[in-house]
Amino acid sequence: MKRCKSCVQEIDEQASKCPNCQAYQNWYKNPQHIGFIVFLPFIFYMWFSLGLFSNIKYEDYIGQFSATEVSMNKINGKSVHTYKITNNTDEKWNHISYELTAVDKQDKVLIVITGSIYDFVVQPNSSTLMSVTVKERIRAAKWQFKITNMRHERY
């Protein structure tokens, strides 16, 4: 004799279901779990196809991106810097984090502006334009733009 896993009453050694409380003794023999067991391979398929196990990081692809200044315009006392971001990878990247540095003639850093654009997307092997608005009036000899991070998500 053995004890029921649910009500702890003594039941027959070969019983797969308790005659007292109707509890199944082995979870995989419970017909209520069959739907879950059938659905389980579909869950794993979706998990892998969505790329949730991908370990693609920006740091591994940093040399395959370029950012070149397209224009710098002054509008109402603000300067708008437009950059062309080129993606030379086979992956889609989004959510860019950047750093824009203003430098004077003696290469002294005047200001560093950091930011993120959440709705930014650059498709595989293509380019896109991105604008950064600087609200402060800064007399910089040159501006340096640097991408600090991007995310890779399949969808």
Characterise this structure.
- The protein has 2 helices and 8 strands.
- The protein has 2 domains: 2-49, no CATH class; 58-152, Immunoglobulin-like (Sandwich), CATH 2.60.40.1620.
- The mean pLDDT is 87.
- The longest helix has 16 residues, at 34-49.
- The protein is 13% helix and 45% strand.
- A 3-stranded antiparallel β-sheet has the order 3-4-7, with no helix packed on it. A 3-stranded antiparallel β-sheet has the order 6-5-8, with no helix packed on it. A two-stranded antiparallel sheet has the order 1-2.
- By secondary structure, it is mainly β.
Briefly say what this structure is:
The chain is mostly beta strands and 155 residues long.
Q: Enumerate the spans where pLDDT stays under 50 for 5 or more consecutive residues.
A: none
The number of strands is: 8
CATH homologous superfamily name of the largest domain? Lipoprotein YajI-like
Q: How far is the N terminus from the C terminus?
A: 55 Å
Structural class of the helices, strands and pairings? Answer: mainly beta
Task: Offer a few descriptive terms.
155 residues, mainly beta, Immunoglobulin-like, 2 domains, three-stranded antiparallel β-sheet, 2 helices, 8 strands, 13% helix, 45% strand, rod-shaped
